[in-house]
Amino acid sequence: MAVYTQVSGEDMTLFMARYDLGALVSFHGIAEGVENTNYLLHTDKGQYILTLYEKRVNSGDLPFFLGLMEHLAEKGLPCPTPLHDKGGVVLQELAGRQAALISFLEGYSVHRPRVSHCGHVGRSLATMHIAGEGFALQRTNALSVQGWRALADATASRADTVALGLSEAIAEEIAFLEQNWPEGLPTGIIHADLFPDNVFFLGDELSGFIDFYFACNDTLAYDIAVCLNAWCFEEPNAFNVTKARALLRRYNEKRSLNANELAALPILARGAALRFLLTRLYDWFHTCGSALVRPKDPREYWRKLRFHQKVKSVGDYGL
Amino acid sequence: MAVYTQVSGEDMTLFMARYDLGALVSFHGIAEGVENTNYLLHTDKGQYILTLYEKRVNSGDLPFFLGLMEHLAEKGLPCPTPLHDKGGVVLQELAGRQAALISFLEGYSVHRPRVSHCGHVGRSLATMHIAGEGFALQRTNALSVQGWRALADATASRADTVALGLSEAIAEEIAFLEQNWPEGLPTGIIHADLFPDNVFFLGDELSGFIDFYFACNDTLAYDIAVCLNAWCFEEPNAFNVTKARALLRRYNEKRSLNANELAALPILARGAALRFLLTRLYDWFHTCGSALVRPKDPREYWRKLRFHQKVKSVGDYGL
Question: Does the beta-carbon distance from B28 to A31 stay under 8 Å?
Answer without folding.
Answer: yes
